[in-house]
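Sanity check

After download, print the first record. It should look like this:
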Amino acid sequence: MQVADALSADEWELVTSDAFVPLTCVSFEADFSGHIEHERLDDSTSINHLTTSGIAVDRTARQAAHANADDIHITLTLGGSGVVRQDGRGVRVRAGSVTTYATDRSYQLDYTKPRQRQVLVQVSKRALGIPLDVVERSCEQLLVAPGAATEVLFETIAETRRSPTPGADAGFAQTVRDLAGTMIRSSVSGTRVMPTTRGGLLATVRSFIRGNLRSPELDVAQIAEAHFVSRRFLYELFEPLSETPGEHLRRLRLRRAAELLADPMPSIAQVAERSGFADPTTFTRAFHREFGMLPREFRHS
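Expected structure tokens:
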């Protein structure tokens, strides 16, 4: 990963040019500062974490005309707000907004509000492995419809940032592209779309489990059915994690319980319910096996 800081608009133009594409700064705060963490996964995909104190930039028509790639930008706004414009259309963005726009055409980004934070995925249109007309329709819409596929993509990127090990896997770039393509297809069609790679499907299944931990009915059979795969295939999918789907589900439930026990307010029964256990007795036994102490002992330790 490459890390760079800028204390002027000129420096920011150099930093962004090295990381993704040349831009022209058109407005910035007097005490402007910018920070970028750039990770190139392979020749067609990179991930950038950006922090700026407020700036507006243009990707001019001349700069776009000299583009030597068919990349798009998929950008999640984490903090601040602004406006993204391309092809005569503009959309307002705020925390949680996701946009897609092409780098081989001019665009404008108004991020002049303070405390801006974005995650930017730069990826080749063709490398996404989905019809180009679908990619172009997404860029025309600019704003990506919120949904599970969007959450999975950026949850996966965030998890890798916290724990770099998965990112070292040569298949991680393929997983990111698959999840990005799934998100775009889902947003454009307005329907649920499944990833096409094992890495993408595993990330989707894990996100589904995290989002449904509280349901005591959630089990391996339900997980498999929700993703249109067999139980056998689901077990194969989890082999890289060296645990079964059931073990993964139980581990996440117990981790959730441990987090809840840090709050003295909920009772042990409430912690069990909120962690997806059918009853306090089953929860207490599972917790003791995992942590070597009872939930009340863990709470006071």
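If your output differs, re-run the checksum step. Summary of this record's structure: The longest strand covers residues 34-42.
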